[in-house]
Known about the structure:
There is one protein chain. With 280 residues, the chain is of the alpha/beta class. The protein contains eleven helices and nine strands. Residues 29-30, 36-37, 40, 146-147, 149-150, 173, 175-176, 183-186 line the site of adenosine monophosphate.
Amino acid sequence: MHVFTTAAELRAYSEAARSAGRRLALVPTMGALHNGHLQLVQAGAAAGYDVIASIFVNPTQFNNSDDLRLYPRLPEQDTALLAGAGCTALFMPTVAEMYPQPTVLHFDFGPLERVMEGAHRPGHFNGVATVVSKLFHLARPHAAYFGQKDFQQVALVRQLIEDLSFDLELIVYPTVREVDGLAMSSRNRRLSAEARAAAPLLYRVLTQAAEQVRQGVAPAEVQALAQAALATEPQFTPEYFEVADAQTLQPLAQYVAGCGVVLCVAAHLSGVRLIDNVVV
Ligand code: AMP
């Protein structure tokens, strides 16, 4: 596996690989890799791509300085895991390499980012769109793998690809979970043993709510029941629970025939912010 730290190395690699007729897939990550990340890499390799993974804890997408400071960083371990998962190249730039000067350009995704993560993490998606655009330009992949775990991020990246005519296929990979249902996340490492034991409630609440949606329980009632269920665990501080249109991400007042529903939740658990979602 190649390991690159400069943009020039990544560009040169991509150009050579493309000239040689190789097909490239990009898997952008912030490291502290878990099986969810590795399955994205394995899926790309199994589909015949040369997989480029990136590890970059992107400061511009953090709206909370403690979250950025405490974000787990395990470069040696990550490098070994990626090599074992069939990754072809790893791009691990410094902040100065990615942002030689502060970016001036700002992204505005309209209603898509005025809800949920966008509403609760000001500037987050501007940072995501900036770094993802830069990575697309540097790696020039034929495909990019993203996890459904970050449902709103996927919707924005889809918009980004359409609006800026990036010539690549977006591949969305299902959320990989622990056996008790907790969505794998780099932030799970920061949970205390007590918090880790309480964490699967998030997915239990989502699955119960999904069942209620299937039974036709009104969105407002599903939301209220989910919030009440989360409140039974005092370690949780819920941030939002939304019953939303899976396409527009706007909260649903009622169900519309033929329109997908997504349930999205964010909650703090012993100082760690967790998100999860289920598509009904
Ligand atoms: P992150 O390192 O958290 O920025 O995530 C990098 C990529 O991995 C994103 O596309 C995430 O959606 C995806 N990802 C993170 N956790 C999971 C998971 N549990 N299952 C599937 N994909 C995931």
